Amino acid sequence: VQLQASGGGLAQAGGSLRLSCAASGPKFREYGAAWFRRVANEEREFVAAISFGGGTTVYHDSVRGRFTISRDNSGNRLFLQMNDLKPEDTAVYYCALRSDLGLTKKSSSYDYWGLGTLVTVSS
User: What digits encode the pLDDT tens for the residues 36-87?
Assistant: First the structure.
């Protein structure tokens, strides 16, 4: 499986961005999916995860109520709608898939990773 994230860019505080992650291969709908982010010289941080069918989601406390994770299994895409952005949301964002059906916040549990997309939020 190959993943390609896009949609990053520059936004002002309070603004919005929508990230998209395109997945190759026929089994996207069988994978749990998530978004992580990394600030330079820090550990990769969990942002949000979604079950294979899209019916269950989980969020990091810092983004709950502002970010929404969703997926389009017919189009092999994962999304992250980011609203009310804050300067501390500035990071490189990564999409990831895992073959296990359960949700997890642990990055080591994910099997496939895309190249990141940079989000910069100015104050």
Answer: 999 988 899 999 999 999 999 999 999 999 999 999 999 999 999 999 999 9
Give the C-alpha separation, 93 to 34, whole Å.
Answer: 10
Other CB atoms within 10 A of residue 61 CB = 6
Instruction: Tokens 């100015």: give the residue.
Output: 122
Q: For the chain, what's the residue count?
A: 123
CB 35 within 8 A of CB 94: yes
What beta strand segments (E) does the chain contain?
3-6, 9-12, 17-23, 32-38, 45-50, 57-59, 67-72, 77-82, 91-98, 112-113, 117-122
